[in-house]
Amino acid sequence: MLGDRLPPLNGLRAFRAAARHLSFRAAAEALNVTQSAVAQQVRGLEQALGATLFERHARGLALTPAGEALLPPVEQAFRLIAEAAARIAQLADVLTVSATPSFVSRWLVPRLDGFTRRHPGIDVRLSASNDLVDFRRDGVDIAIRYGTGVDPGLAAQLLFPADPVAVCSPGLCRADGGLDPADLGTRVPLLHDSHFLWAEWYRAAGRDEARRGVRFSHTLHAIEAALLGQGIALVPRPLVERELRAGQLAAPLDIRLPDAGGVGRGFFIVAPPELWETRKVAAMRTWLLAEATG
Q1: What is the percentage of the chain residues whose pLDDT exceeds 70?
Q2: 57, 77, 104, 128: which sits with the fewest CB atoms below 10 Å from its CB?
Q3: Strand-strand pairing, 142-147 and 94-99
């Protein structure tokens, strides 16, 4: 009795091929082994099972009742293994990227076709969320996160500094330096996002925070409001670089935030150490860095 032990897998493979062709010779050709090897593996399987699987005839093989009983589950088992292997191979070419909605919309999506053209065999899945990522639970391979530091359990690399900049539409605030900080929150409404950069700037400037304005849960919406002339937003420069170059937004004030603890505020590429050097994650890291510096 085999008990919990599996019968020899090479024997099962040889049995399956021989049962399909009812010939050791044809099975050997299908498996690219010798006929004697197939016959030997089948005999080993029969010995392990304690049953004869084939009737040997001069003109070929015929399945015994034991062989007929064994063939369907063997076929099903090999089919399940093949399907699982195919799914795993497919997943190996799927790259799930997590980033904040603002980063996805303002920076990543406008450039993403460059990655897909360079790596057509990698299917990218974007997960836009401000929530912290549980890489194993959420099935995420790589993330881009904004902040001043990274979880020490993750591999990380700075993509680019945040370089916060105060922006507004040219029609609302002149780009010639004529806007005075005293206008903020009075003549020009403040546009706040979830990073509370205006509150940080007011503290650094030793001023009482002007609270007039709208608060948004995403930086993306604060930028859209600035484009519509609804106020002035303090946001990471990389997210508005295109609009600044095109003249759709102006940066009328030289506002600088202090470096928090000497760490540096920025966007970081993060991933579990075991995924960091995998082919698909390394491809995305290399491309992100090239885009950031290009």
Answers
A1: 90
A2: 57
A3: parallel
Identify whether the C-beta of residue 111 lies closer than 8 Å to the C-beta of residue 291: yes
Between CA 239 and CA 233 the distance in angstroms is 12
Q: Kindly report the backbone phi and psi dihedral angles of residue 278, in degrees, each rounded to the nearest multiple of 5, phi listed first.
A: -65, 155
253, 168 Cβ separation under 8 angstroms: no
Q: How far apart are CA 142 and CA 144, in angstroms?
A: 7
What pLDDT shows up at residue 237? 92
Give the mean model confidence (pLDDT) for residues 67-77: 95
The C-alpha atoms of residue 248 and residue 238 are separated, in whole angstroms, by: 15
Q: Please name the residues in contact with 120: beta carbons below 8 A apart, sequence gap of 6 or more.
A: none
Return left, alpha or beta for 32; rule: phi > 0 is left, psi -120 to 50 is alpha, else beta. left
Contact indicator for 289, 282 with CB cutoff of 8 Å: no
Give the SS3 label for residue 54. strand
Q: What is the token pair recorded at 135?
A: 């890489």
Which residue has tokens 């993306």? 220
Chain position carrying tokens 């780009």 = 175
pLDDT at position 261 is 41
Handedness of CA 93, 101, 157, 245 (dihedral sign): positive
Q: Rounded to 5, what percent of the chain is helix, strand, coil? A: 45, 20, 35
With cut-offs at 50, 70 and 90, classify the pLDDT of residue 20: very high
Local confidence band at 74 (pLDDT 50, 70, 90 cut-offs): very high
